[in-house]
Amino acid sequence: MQNRKLKNSELNRKTAAQAIAAQRTPLILILDNIRSLNNIGSVFRTADAFLIEKIYLCGITATPPHKDIQKTALGATDSVGWEYVDDAVTLVQSLQDEGVEVWAIEQTEKSTLLHDFLPQKNKKTAFVLGNEIKGVQQSVINQAGNVIEIPQEGAKHSLNISVTAGVVCWDFYQKLKTK
Length: 179
Prior knowledge:
Number of helices: 6
Low-confidence stretches: none
């Protein structure tokens, strides 16, 4: 028995306008000094897939429109809300003042392992994703106070930022939907 691949016309895809108007997942992504334009675009695609509320682009993180972001975003910059904010620490403080629970995605001494993290159904959450080489700035970790670590068993203990975004967004989305 064959398992036929679906055509794009069979996927029940939303238009950009429908995606923007859709009920959003109460998750915000903060990109802290991301260097790779392709990684930025990939995060936009992941955010579109899970109807993430918003992306904040901070520090040296480039902003749309840019051809290298568009190359991997494939139009997701039109269906996901985003904003540039220069300083991630100030942004984290501002979000916390609004009642958003902020978690840095990093490896620290007192991190919460991803499988132990449980999102709160009626509370907005933000995840901070860090620079490809240096990770999340220590000052941002200090301000956030909360840290989630993705358990890893290999030699590198390092995931690409776009992979990390996919893992944590999926985890948040499926835990929230099954709660």
